[in-house]
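W.,

You were right to be curious about this one. When I first looked at the sequence I had no strong expectations either way, so I just let the prediction run and decided to look at it fresh. Below is the sequence, 533 residues in total, followed by the output.
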Amino acid sequence: MAKDHHHVLTALDSAKTQWYHFTAIVIAGMGFFTDAYDLFCISLVTKLLGRIYYHELGDAKPGTLPPNVAAAVTGVAFCGTLAGQLFFGWLGDKMGRKKVYGMTLMTMVICSIASGLSFGSDRKAVMATICFFRFWLGFGIGGDYPLSATIMSEYANKKTRGAFIAAVFAMQGFGILAGGVFAIIVSAAYKAKYPAPSYEQNAFASTVPQADHVWRIIVMFGAVPALLTYYWRMKMPETARYTALVAHNAKKAAADMSKVLQVDLTAKEQQKDEEVEGSKKNKLFGLFSKEFLRRHGLHLLGTTSTWFLLDIAFYSQNLFQKDIFSAVGWIPPAKTMNAIEEVYKIAKAQTLIATFSTVPGYWCTVLLIDIIGRFAIQLMGFFFMTVFMFALAIPYNHWLHGNHIGFVIIYSLTFFFANFGPNATTFVVPAEIFPARLRSTCHGISAAAGKAGAIVGAFGFLYAAQSTDKTKTDKGYPPGIGVKNSLIMLGVVNFLGMLFTFLVPESKGRSLEEMSGENEEEGNVGDAKTAPV
């Protein structure tokens, strides 16, 4: 049986890059396209939600979401994502990757649509609806992380595996870009159809009733790309590695892969030897065993800590980037614009950043990850993120006084090296270094640690980035430590990420079984063997 497994897996590792590999990238990647769109589109419309539902007559500034509501609206999807990563990661190892894959996508489709609807028209009902469905939207998104990464890693050959997994994740860049472009199109159309004065000219008329359609259309559009790929996702066969190593059916693994990949895969009818099987079961080790701790404990610490630290910086940047753009003059003061115009300006700024730094960074990783390796890219990314954060923070007052272009260039470079760096590699490596029986679970745990970091960034920096001057804070927020000190904190976080990178092993050019030690286990019945959680 071990020989059958070895034959199938060796054939997969040495298979030439084929059309189905690219099909799998698109099928898995469209989930991440939707993930990124859904998670980041909310930052485009939070200002609009404040104007529509929290405007107060006679106020000198447009309405804004109260701190607790803003934190809930922006952060609740991350809470759902964290829960989904843990649950679906575990379920993917228990039931198989394919069986669980469709559940996550349909959850995303249904909740994308539902989050743009409302149970009632008053602000409490609208915010409660958004938060409820965005939690479950996040739950579905969370499942896509471990499943997409694991499926792609188990389909790929060892020569180009890193590029394939990174390409799936790189679809996030297009999702962020699509969110900005679609918001520009919708807001431009509504701005032309329903012209309105600025807030300082006429506070009440600056927010036309039709503005309520804008945020709903932007939020609900996330269901479209996910729905388009549902059929193809359901047609994907179970991965050969799961079928062979976890379900112990090498013949079915060979048959499944022969349908989609042009490789010569044959396996003998599996023969069950009760004595051998019983011996193996007695030697299984699980996630919470000393054997797992000995073999993979430091690896799991490395993948969880680096992803946690990266996401503190990455998501806090994305979530308060509209405030940074306001500070440097890219987005005018809110009172000089009407509600829909503000959405347009915020979306335009996000689209520019995505076009010139986010998307190129992702695809640099795809091109180079199997050449220079995961470790080098991650270490380099954290290093430059640290340097550029301090370059923004220390002379912050210099950037504010007429040096806006320099600020935006350096800010874009931090995004470039996040994506040509740890934002991609923290996704790739956990799908490569753990045993097949625990691969989805461990990826889910690593990703959940990342989302815990995103929650810290999303909730914490809404408050931290507020001005130290009470008269200059957003309505309802207490004074914070200011953007400058927030950027210094993020620089320190990135430096810690660089240090924890040394716990993560290099997997370039090595088979999944070599990384996890499963080759040795298959060859020796007496050795300890991984087990489901």
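Here's what jumped out at me. The CA atoms of residues 32 and 172 lie 5 Å apart. And, maybe more interesting for your project: The two ends are 23 Å apart (CA to CA).

Coffee later to discuss?

I.
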